[in-house]
């Protein structure tokens, strides 16, 4: 009899059963892995309509009748690639937005090389992004465009909207960090130990591999062990393998971040938290959040471990716009774009919100006439059109 | 035993005898050996005979130098100072070994203490790494930081700096990996205690997967606790600084080596990239100004 009480005989019996199942799985997986696999990502048809240095502007072919006149430009982060928004048919934010009848453009930041190491945030925001916006405005003959940012891309969109409010009709920020003074995210804690000048001086551009390693270290048991245990358990299933490989392709496709951009982002945003305080400057031009006067939709995830709610929710209270809305989804940083539930919520919400604001612009006098409800001692300044934070059940 | 006897039977006497017998051997070998007894056979051209005489003279000169140096070494004062130096080396080596051993035994004791406490990362910083760093900075680093002299002094200083930074990088990485390994050890201890409890209650799972899931959860919890400690953040900062310092020092050495070859270095390319960047920016600004002024017309 086993003195410790551990049912070793039962465990061994189960192990033997599992071994037999594993053997069947291995035989099936051999067929799956050695056979044809559909693992292409970012397959939605598009045209490259503008190029500048390493930047490309993608214009997607429409999938439905146009419902929103003003074109939408999506600005992804410099970390990882925008292909995550178009992972596969059935899990593609791009396709969902196209089906809602929105004319969609996406910036592809490309792969920075050594010669890009001196490019600053100003070059990206007031250079590349401004040129892209001007191009689209000329192409469509419109004075303003709709802007949607993802994560660090959202931070760029905030900066751009504050510096060029005359060119932005509506601003959508998704999982966008605007407030970096929080210890709810490990990144915010760890970055305090980093010396950005030393990093940039040593590496030039911030290597994508180092960033990848950093993200993996955020949760080694789950991201380096459990994930692959799950993979080997499902390796006999072709669909599972294809989805897994697509995600792997995206997650380890990490371009380097231009050195000067990285330096300034760490120093001014993470360390000094200048953006939310309206003290950040790009090439001497101050980013005043009060100059963001267009409607703002701010979407973030409650369980986002990289951009927790505390890092995103302050934005709407600091902008000058009277028409702002916060939407907190019950999901994480990437789940907001790839989870099955959010696939059904995100695009329709964005489309409806843009459609409501796609009409002729009201004059400033008309906006001033809208009565403003009194602000409480702890609440942010609110207006009649400001919506409360909505949460969606998981 | 009186002084004379000690002198005759001690290591100095042994060394002197050895030197004397070695000198005698080579002297007799020179006289009787192939070169010592070499005679130019007839008929031999005059140049060959001259060459062999020069060789003999050279060999005899070498032998004289050897004899003189062994005579000098045989003197009691020289022998005494030489042997003092030889006995000093074991003392230094013994000190190094003792410090290293103390460090290892401390590390082991620390490990035993640490793995005992679950979800507790207090006193995490193993002093052994601190002790090794202290020893390294005191005993080894000063040699690497010594100012160099001569034509190649700058290159030598950069090479020494690279070695110094490599040593610090190795220490930092070892410390960081040790810290990352601590949650694994703690989680295994926690699992041990959990299994004992569960077996007492008779609630042990039969499925291996359940054990794995339990362990992963415990492990994840330990990592999340560790990541928020100031010790971890400091260690992370130290490790990143050490990596960057080592990379920078190594690149300086590589650039020195590459300068011998007719290829541009990173430093050359960075200068070019900076010029490109400034030029491109100016051109874009001017193009925009021209576009705006044409639009106004």
Tell me about this structure.
The complex is a heterodimer of chains A (394) and B (297). With 394 residues, chain A is of the alpha/beta class. Chain A has 15 helices and 13 strands. Chain A has helices spanning 8-34, 93-99, 121-140, 152-163, 186-191, 196-203, 208-217, 220-234, 238-251, 259-271, 309-312, 315-318, 335-338, 340-356, 364-369; strands spanning 46-52, 55-60, 68-75, 86-88, 91-92, 102-108, 145-150, 168-174, 281-282, 285-286, 296-301, 324-329, 387-392. Chain A has a 9-stranded mixed sheet, with helices on both faces. Chain A has a two-stranded antiparallel sheet with strand order 4-5. In chain A, a hairpin with a 2-residue loop joins strand 1 (46-52) and strand 2 (55-60). The radius of gyration of chain A is 23 Å and the shape is globular. Chain A starts with 7 loop residues before the first helix and ends with a strand. Residues 362-386 and 390-394 of chain A have low confidence and may be disordered. Chain B has 297 residues and is mainly α. Helix content of chain B is 82%, strand content 0%. Chain B has helices at 3-9, 11-32, 46-74, 76-114, 127-144, 153-201, 208-227, 230-258, 266-296. In chain B, helix 2 (11-32) packs antiparallel against helix 3. The A-B interface holds A 4-7, 10-11, 14-15, 18, 114-115, 117-119, 123, 127, 183, 186, 189-190, 192-195, 198-199, 201-204, 217-222, 225-226, 229 and B 180, 195-196, 199-200, 202, 204, 206-209, 212, 216, 219-220, 223-224, 227-228, 233-234, 236-237, 240-241, 244-245, 247-248, 266, 269-270, 273-274, 276-277, 281, 284.
């Amino acid at each position: 009899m086993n003195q410790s009480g551990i049912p070793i005989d039962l465990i061994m019996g189960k192990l033997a059963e599992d071994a037999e199942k594993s053997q069947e799985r291995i035989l099936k997986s051999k067929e799956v892995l050695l056979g044809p696999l559909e693992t292409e990502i970012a397959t939605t048809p598009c045209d490259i309509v503008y190029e500048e240095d390493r930047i490309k502007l993608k214009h997607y072919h429409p999938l439905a009748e146009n419902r929103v006149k003003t074109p939408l430009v999506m600005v992804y982060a410099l970390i990882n690639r925008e292909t995550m928004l178009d992972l596969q048919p059935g899990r593609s934010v791009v396709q969902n937005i196209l089906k809602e009848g929105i004319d969609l453009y996406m910036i592809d930041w490309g792969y920075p090389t050594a010669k890009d190491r001196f490019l600053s945030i100003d070059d990206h925001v007031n250079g590349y992004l401004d040129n892209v916006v001007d191009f689209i405005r000329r192409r469509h003959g419109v004075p303003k465009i709709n802007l949607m940012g993802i994560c660090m891309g959202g931070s760029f969109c905030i900066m751009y909207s504050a510096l060029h409010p005359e060119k932005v009709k509506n601003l959508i920020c998704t999982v966008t960090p605007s407030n970096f003074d929080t210890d709810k995210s490990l990144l915010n804690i760890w970055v305090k130990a980093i010396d950005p000048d030393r990093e940039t001086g040593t590496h030039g551009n911030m290597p994508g591999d180092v960033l990848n390693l950093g993200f993996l270290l955020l949760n080694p048991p789950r991201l380096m062990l459990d994930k692959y245990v799950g993979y080997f358990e499902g390796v006999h299933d072709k669909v599972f393998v294809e989805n897994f490989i697509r995600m792997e392709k995206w997650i380890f496709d990490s371009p380097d971040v231009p050195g000067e951009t990285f330096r300034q982002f760490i120093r001014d945003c993470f360390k000094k938290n200048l953006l939310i305080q309206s003290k950040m400057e790009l090439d001497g031009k101050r980013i005043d959040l009060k100059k963001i006067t267009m409607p703002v939709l701010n979407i973030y995830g409650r369980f986002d471990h990289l951009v927790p709610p505390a890092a995103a929710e302050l934005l709407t209270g600091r902008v000058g716009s009277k028409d702002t809305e916060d939407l907190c989804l019950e999901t994480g940083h990437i789940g907001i774009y790839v989870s099955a539930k959010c696939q059904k919520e995100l695009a329709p919400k964005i489309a409806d919100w843009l459609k409501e604001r796609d009409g002729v612009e009201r004059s400033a006098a008309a906006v001033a006439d809208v009565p403003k409800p009194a602000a409480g001692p702890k609440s942010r300044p609110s207006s009649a059109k400001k919506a409360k934070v909505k949460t969606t059940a998981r | 035993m009186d002084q004379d006897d000690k002198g005759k039977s001690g290591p100095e006497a042994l060394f002197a005898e050895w030197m004397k017998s070695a000198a005698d051997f080579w002297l007799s070998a020179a006289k009787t050996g192939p070169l010592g007894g070499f005679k130019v056979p007839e008929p031999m051209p005059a140049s060959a005979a001259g060459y062999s005489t020069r060789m003999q003279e050279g060999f005899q000169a070498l032998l004289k130098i050897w004899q003189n140096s062994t005579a000098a070494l045989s003197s009691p004062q020289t022998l005494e100072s030489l042997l003092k130096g030889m006995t000093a080396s074991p003392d230094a080596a013994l000190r190094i070994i003792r410090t290293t051993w103390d460090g290892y035994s401390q590390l082991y004791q620390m490990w035993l203490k640490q793995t005992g406490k679950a979800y507790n990362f207090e006193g995490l910083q193993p002093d052994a790494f601190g002790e090794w760093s202290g020893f390294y900075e005191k005993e080894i680093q000063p040699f690497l930081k010594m100012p160099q002299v001569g034509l190649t002094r700058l290159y030598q200083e950069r090479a020494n700096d690279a070695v110094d930074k490599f040593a610090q990088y190795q220490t930092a990485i070892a410390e960081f990996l040790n810290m990352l390994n601590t949650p694994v050890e703690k989680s295994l201890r926690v699992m041990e205690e959990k299994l004992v409890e569960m077996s007492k209650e008779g609630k042990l799972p039969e499925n291996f997967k359940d054990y794995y899931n339990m362990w992963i959860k415990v492990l994840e919890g330990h990592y999340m606790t560790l990541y928020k400690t100031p010790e971890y953040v400091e260690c992370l900062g130290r490790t990143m600084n050490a990596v960057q310092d080592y990379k920078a020092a190594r690149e300086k050495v590589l650039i020195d080596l590459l300068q011998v070859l007719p290829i541009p270095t990173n430093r050359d390319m960075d200068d070019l990239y900076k010029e490109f960047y400034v030029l491109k920016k100016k051109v874009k600004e001017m193009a925009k100004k021209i576009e705006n002024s044409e639009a106004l017309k």
